[in-house]
Structures are given as structure tokens and as C-alpha cells.
């Protein structure tokens, strides 16, 4: 089985998707959903909160994706589609040659 390294952008998108899929999500649930260590998760949470993509809900000790985070996810998903299409086109082109 081939393991694939995830980019920082991919990990950030997975955190935002996970936080968007629930009303509110805790650090522990995020850690398990995205397969990160606690130290790694803390680093990403700080980055996402600092950039306004994720918000911390103090009273609930949980997180939620912001509107800006949702816009980021839409752009990220569109980029993923474009990359997949480009790879498919390249494979089809190489088979013809």
C-alpha cells in the first residue's frame, strides 16, 4: 500500500471540512478525524484561527468553520477538481502517444 504525504493546505482543508460537518467540534474529535497528533493539531488550529478561517467557541470549548473558511474550502475543492482533470488529460494524452 502506498502512503501519500499530505500538504499543509490539504490538512488545513480537512480540518475546516471536519469543523464544518458538525455544529461544533472539539479538539479531540478534530484530532481523530484528521489523523493528527495533538501537537500538530495545535499548530494548525492556531494558524487557521489567526487567519480567520476557523473560530473557537469559548463557552463550548469547540470550533467552527467561518464564512471565510467556507470560501477557502470552495476554492480548494475547485483547485482539486482542476488538478484531477489535468492529470487525467495528461494520462490520456500519454496513452495515445
Describe this structure in words.
This protein is mainly alpha-helical and 97 residues long. It has helices at residues 8-21, 27-34, 38-50, 67-96, and strands at 54-57, 62-65. The radius of gyration is 16 Å and the shape is elongated.
What overall form do the CA principal axes indicate?
A: elongated
Instruction: Give, in order, the helices and strands.
Output: HHHEEH
Provide the residue-averaged pLDDT: 91
The rounded distance between the terminal residues' Cα atoms is 29 Å
Oligomer: single chain
Strand content: 5-15%
Strand arrangement across the biggest beta sheet: 1-2
Instruction: Estimate the helix proportion, in percent.
Output: 55-70%
Give the helix/strand class: mainly alpha
Q: Main β-sheet: number of strands, strand sense, barrel status?
A: 2 strands, antiparallel
Q: Regions with pLDDT < 50 over 5+ consecutive residues?
A: none
- What is the CA-based Rg, rounded? 16 Å
- The number of helical runs is 4
Amino acid at each position: 500500500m502506498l502512503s501519500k504525504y499530505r500538504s499543509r493546505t490539504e490538512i488545513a482543508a480537512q480540518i475546516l471540512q471536519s469543523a464544518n460537518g458538525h455544529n461544533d467540534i472539539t479538539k479531540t474529535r478534530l484530532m481523530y478525524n484528521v489523523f493528527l497528533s495533538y501537537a500538530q493539531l495545535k499548530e494548525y488550529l492556531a494558524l487557521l484561527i489567526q487567519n480567520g478561517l476557523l473560530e473557537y467557541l469559548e463557552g463550548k470549548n469547540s470550533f467552527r468553520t467561518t464564512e471565510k473558511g467556507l470560501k477557502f474550502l470552495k476554492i480548494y475543492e475547485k483547485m482539486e477538481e482542476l488538478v484531477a482533470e489535468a492529470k487525467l488529460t495528461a494520462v490520456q494524452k500519454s496513452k495515445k502517444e
